[in-house]
Specification:
The radius of gyration is 47 Å and the shape is rod-shaped. The longest helix has 71 residues. Strand 4 and strand 5 form a beta hairpin. It is α+β, with helices and mostly antiparallel strands. Helix 1 runs parallel beside helix 3.
Length: 299
Amino acid sequence: MRKLQNKKRMNKNKGLIIAIIVLAVIVVGVSYFALRQTQQNKEMSELFAIEKEEMENEYSRFATQYDELQVQINNDSLREKLESEKLKTQRLLEELRQVKTSDAAEIMRLKKELKTVRAVLRTYVIQIDSLNRLNAALKQENEEVKSKYSAATLQISNLSQEKETLHQKVSLAAQLDATNISAQTLNKRGRSTSRVKNVKKIAVSFTIVKNITAETGNKTVYIRIAKPDNSILSKSSANTFKYEDREIGYSIKKYIEYTGEEQTVTVYWDVEEFLPAGTYAIYIFADGNMIGQGSFKMK
């Protein structure tokens, strides 16, 4: 009987020892996994901290790039859009700075926002680069226009020299001569006015002097009215006549029958375009020669 009791006591002790061992194993296992989880959380937190710092640097760089882009453009509308995107970037940067490294969900959200900011910025960079290239092309075109203008100015200067030479030919007996060249500026009621904004018609009058040696018969007289910038008033680019081996534009064409006697001619220009104030020049041509010139002013 005693042996049986001792055996039962031994079995009970043995079971207790096994239970203690199992419990110890469980505690060790749980501690190990807890320690491992803590280590993983620490590593993840460190990773998020690094990623957060990189994201903050990118947000800061993007905000700076928006400032740089604004300096490159003169378009107010586009500049306002860039300012709006810059403020949005700065707001997201501030949100990121307030986020804890343990808040994985919020960091991922701001990472997605960063991707959007990057894409939008890239779009503006491409757009502004395109505008800058267009502006460069326009600048080059402007230089070409200036060059052509200089060439035109030179041509006008040459024309002045040619006109001086032409004046010397006026003494030739057979050439017509236009004198008493005048212009009257009229308003819509046909009354004289000197205010350019009220002028509706310009009446140009001149006298072709008597010349018994000049060839008589039907003649075409061309009148060129030059604005203050030396451009010629004309109703059509096709209105040209030949002068010294080239075609030049005219304002008014008048057919006359010349008999050799003094003859007064009046022609009219209907004002249908904007006219600036200043001094206007009048050039009269006939038989391939400039036979007179005058001027008038409008204020």
